[in-house]
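Quality-control log, excerpt.
Job 1 of 2 completed; input and output follow.
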Amino acid sequence: MIRKRTILIFVFAFILVMSVYMMFLGNFPKVVYEKELDSDDLEKVSTSTSNDDQIVPAVKNLESDFFIEYKLERDRLRGQEADYLKELINNPNASAESKEKAQQELIALSQKVEKEMIVENLIKAKGFEDAVIFFSDEYVNIVIKTDGLLQKDIAQITDIVTKTTGFPIDKITIIERK
């Protein structure tokens, strides 16, 4: 019994290490900001295309990929975590205590996913193009796709986050991203 559990832990640890390795070492497209493009890069893009109208959408597509790529990666990792917890819950060799802990962690994970979805969708409903929220135990970071935030926008976003998550205003950070 101990041997099976040890092997299972090593397999999941290996999967986790490999997924982090693949995430950080280039299996995902690089997000390019307009600020990072220098005149040489713009010349390469403009000489490789025959129409100047094609340059701006290409840069905008690269920038908007941050939100899409982050959400896809977050969903993939959450799915793996949920699968691991479900395997633990359904494992007949697992102790009742470990099954109970895994069930609590699965419930907490689903509640976190629900809060993220609610906050992101409420922010979009306020007229922002996109948003991503990062929870930790102590703070909340929100990345908003916008060309600039006004005081009323900041107030609306913090109101949504405090009401939905219960975090106080001083634990909320809003990051603008164009």
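Job 2 of 2 completed; input and output follow.
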Amino acid sequence: MLGSLCRFIFFHTHIAKEYSIKNYRGSLHIFMNRQHIMVKALVDTGNRLYEPFTGKPVCLVEYESLKHCLTGRDGHYYVRPIPYHSIGKEHGILWGVTADKLIFQNQRRKIKRHGCIIGIYPGKISSMGEYNAIIHPDILKSNVCGRSRI
């Protein structure tokens, strides 16, 4: 019985955790201003950032990863301020842009959305370089930004 309990604890703490992490990581394809980039992304269930005017959830993407998509035909793009609060930053502002299309894909699912808001993060999201974007969990729900699951 002790052996069975040890196997159960090992499975629960190691294998189930690894399975769960894989479900929350994937690739994020961003289509904007006739450009396409792909970044490594993490779905952050603690992300509760919404754009205040439209009420749409906000994904965070590193500026360095996103900068190629930011210039339009005339060299400009429309940005909007997104206020936020976090630990150590009571009244912060991120700049946000609207993506033409986002596709999140991992081993379990492929989800396509149109018109989602991207917050431009000025630094590194992951110090180890494991991901370059944080996806708001509401974006994975149907009809939040635009079209549903493909």
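Post-run check on job 2. The radius of gyration is 18 Å.
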